[in-house]
Amino acid sequence: MPEHLTNLIEELALANRILAHEGVLDAFGHVSVRHPSDPARYLLSSRARAPLLIEPDDVAEYNLDSEPLKRSTARPYSERVIHGCIYQARSDVIAVCHNHAPALMPFCVSGRPIVPVSHVGATMGDQAPFWDQAAEFGDTNLLVVKPEEGRSLARALGRHFVVLMRRHGSTVVGTSLKELVARSIFLCENARYQMQAYLLGTPMPLRPGEVKPSGDGNLSAGVIARNWEYWVHRLHLSGNWPLPAKPAGVAPAKAARRTQSRPARAASKKKKRR
Question: Is 79 a catalytic residue?
């Protein structure tokens, strides 16, 4: 596998874990990135797994119809059409995140719009349109599983970077994976500030002329690098990165035991004797 692809796959696993650790993702939600050599493919976990647990070995390639390029017995994400349909509609999009962030859900439930109220919030753009699945498809289980549903969501996103999904969650896009991570986290911060401001009165959004320069500044390479280093450090302190090394030629169960501390192995042996 080319080194640049290996590095991107590791970065995708790291992005999943950062977004989970920062409260954007929980046991649900998913992150993908467009293939660096073939824009007609994208990378996503091959199995429906909590983002905080995603490892590089989980990542597989999909075509833009969201079909895996290699057959697998793993159960994939049911809403992967969200990613494929957006990549089909937007050639500028390099990464996609679908989430149900607690900071955003009050807006998705109420229908009240999120507006940029802080300088980092400007990374969302001037507005985040709503998509109401029921308006086009009637009563569903709210999951976006059919290609026509994915295409409808992509149309609602339009040229924006965020789309709010009524009673469901949101989908965020970026022109790079790190930009996507930054925008997703900043969007949640902005939503929390907006909610808190309602306790004091009517939030005052950024002036129209402030949105673009503020957004561009907070998505500059230097600012993203500074935040990325911070988020990786926080993840490292939590113990969720880096991943334990897998000894070559050792079965998974043995590898897991080797990563245990001596007290943990001793406790495990006692349990077996019992």
Answer: yes
